[in-house]
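Quick question, first post here. What does this chain look like in 3D?
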Amino acid sequence: MSFNASKLAINNKSKGPDKIFSLIELLGVKHYISNLVILLPALFYRGDHSNLDLVIGLVSFCLLTSAISCLNAIGDVLSDLGHPKRKNKPLPSGTVSETTAKIAVMVLLLVLFRLAFFLPLSIMPFFILYFVINTFYSIGARKDPGMSGLLIFTGIIIRIFVGIDLVDAPNEAVWLIIPAGLLVLTLAVGQHLVKLKGKVAIADK
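> Answer (accepted):
Ran it through. Tokens below.
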């Protein structure tokens, strides 16, 4: 085997793991931790809810956030190409094709639609609201720095109410759950503001 052929074989082997990590990044898997807020009401209310419902609800919301992550990446391809750091993201770098991203969105939404049959119908408006808000944000609202904090706020609140619906918590239990959710929300927004302040400081230098 020639030197060039050996080098090509090594490069092809390295592209496999790179593509897997790029797909994970495209799907926004690192943000799944935010979806664990859905389980918060279950810690405060021990009703006769099914743990399977909680798992299906959590997985469904992860599918939704992944679909939104892919849609955002598709919409940002052109602007990311001209950015020194964002050009290394999966789509602008070419590690994952735009066609693959579109197929991923369809598959994720189809699986989500199938799982929806196992969830309470009352949860669907929260899923739709979260999708609409994030679509509005990606279309143009992200240009306003304040909208990022608002998105985090609404996202956490929606997750809390999805969790409340999944455990079918009574009204008196809701008032115990919401303060804990607001604490999580305060921490999340605070962390976001720190990051935003850091970006502004770097831009001013």
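The chain has ten helices and no strands.
The two ends are 52 Å apart (CA to CA).
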